Amino acid sequence: MSTSPYIRPGAEHLLEDLNSAQRAAVTHDARALLVVAGAGTGKTRALTRRVAWLITQGLPPHAVLAITFTNKAADELKRRLVTLPGGGGVWAGTFHGFGSFLLRRHGDAVGIDPRFTILDRDDQLSVLKAIYKDLDIEKGVLRPVDALAMISHRKNGGGGRPPIDLTMPGVAFIFDQLHDAYVERLRGADLLDFDDLLLDSVRLLEECDDVAALYRERFAHVLVDEYQDTNLVQRDLLRHLVGPHQRITVVGDPDQSIYRWRGAVVRNILDFGEDFEGAEQVLLERNYRSTGHILGAAEAVIERNRERHAKRLYTEREDGQRVLLTRCRDAEDEGRAVAAQVETWVRQGRRHDQIAVFYRINALSRGIELALNDRRIPYVIVAGTEFFQRREVKDVLSYARLIANPRDEAAFTRIVNVPRRGVGATSIQRLRDFALARELALTDAAPRAEEAGVSKRARGGLQRLLELFAKVRAMPRAPVAPILEALLEGSGYRATLEDSADDLDRSRLENVDELVAYAREFDAKEASGDLQSFLERAALVSDQDGYVGESGRVSLMSVHAAKGLEFPCVLIAGAEMGYFPHARSLGEDAGEEEERRLFYVAMTRAQDELAVSHAVRRQTYMGEEHRAPSPYILDIPEDRLERRDLATWSGASSLFDQPSATGYAPPPDDDVSVVRETGLGLEVGERVLHPYFGPGRLEEVGGGGADARVTVDFDVHGRKQLLLRHARLERLS
Ligand code: ATP
Ligand code: MG
Question: Domains along the chain?
Fold first, then answer.
């Protein structure tokens, strides 16, 4: 790996392995600098190199604030900088991490207890569900998940299409109640959700001039990676942070903006010049990552987006292998095709950890896992959040959270009767009603259980729990592992798992032990770490944080988690209508364009080999479904594709044993009949129907034979050029 530029002293070597545009980006003296560039052009490399460059030019590391997309990226940046003379001390982390950092130090200035707890989505839902119960609201009219999405939407300023229809009878009324109760509940228990971390930080900087001044003084240069995925609140945070004497550098690619559903706006890139005075721009155009075929195929896909500023992107790499497109019968078939492809690549000399499999939704991993298991191919599911979402891990963390924040209602509700201590649902509801009537935090009501009418037996259980908390709260807040141990022993949580005959509880125990081990590692590594920062790390973990480079295993992950990464060999599974684009986005232009960008992100992770697969049938929650291929694969030029069809050959599975089988498979039967029936007889001007682009008008027929192409202006999807052979058009009479 190329860490060498960081190790040697001096500054020039930092520029040695950069092209001239990258050098310009690294050394630019603009007050505000925007680097816009396509995938794999070295944006992240230029950004990290710029930090190093600034430090060698005399900027104290302490004065650098670097916002990365994941904790992992931040760790990586810090790790590299440590080798620079005077390189430690840069503040690097995510937006949410930075918000948390600010609020822990200065939150009290805006009424936030610095001991606040961060709620993840699960916790948010459980708080909301409790509110449904307390207020006696039916879930039928407005589902909790939708209400939650709407709460976030409203908190973030409410731009764009709201996730729920407030004009439906009764919905607005119910939503307002839920919203107000939710906000109040969080405030009363010192709980912040992810939105709050950002919004309250902005409020803090807005309302407290001295705090804003303090950080403007401290941070002379702010740098942000993946700027295309910032939202307006994050932009505001930056604006408050960057005063007239500071500098800001952001890098991003509008074509890779994939967090619109979380409020990200590409506009932040387009408006950069207005948001930050004196802005200048550097373009990077050379892609260093991918082969010609991969880049060409990806470009052909993204070009179809209408909301787009075309940019130049080229590679000096060879064309390499064509993109392998495999049509499979069903999910099982697809799993086997993926496993066979992995084996082929390994036979050709690739390591397992040079291979990644991406999917649009996590549920798709199951079929692939089964197949990999069958062939004994080592793999790892990259999902950093998953471990921390496990029931037992969340239970233990909830105990720990109550040590850090005694008012954490979400945590209290979760563990008050886990393991069982006689505090049943009725007792909890009594306590809750009592707290509600007196405007007390739930945990403050617990010591008054008798007044609340809680049964004697439940009171005994509560009493023991409160005593445990008092005892553990008296311990020092670091190291963390002994705190977890004390809670596990004192609560009987470990003993309950140990005594259980259930196999599941065995593996739960292992996970609990893993959490304690994780805490030990944290204690050893983080000199200034305490319980608070440990919990924060657990709460702010992202899926990508679970990725380990040289694991010796194939990585399986969602496309969202793959952002910013690269692999020599990439497989994209489930390239079907309903996943790419996701069914949820259909009928909404902006949503569909985002889906296309997501596919572009997936494709551009690949360095040397890219394989895409889809199944024609799949079991979904609706039963067995016929699946149409993703329209995006239709946009890949035929001369960059190598097709394989496993869905129509009866002897398809034998193909797996012949990795050399290449070339075009005969067109599937149903395609042939359609071509025969309508393809050649169609005339320009006729109305036609496409299986997923819907109705449109035939505008042009070009070429002949196998290469015949048609241009159709679809009513909804606009003009598209299709290979007639695969277009499956029907005449609309
Ligand atoms: P993405 O859009 O996916 O975030 P990016 O623009 O941030 O990509 P990087 O990840 O920084 O791109 O770089 C892509 C690859 O190209 C990396 O492997 C990087 O080391 C390599 N690279 C970048 N610049 C150069 C260069 N000047 N010479 C050689 N390799 C380079
Ligand atoms: Mg990058």
Answer: 11-106+197-286 (3.40.50.300), 117-189 (no CATH), 296-382+549-659 (3.40.50.300), 387-539 (1.10.486.10), 667-733 (2.40.10)
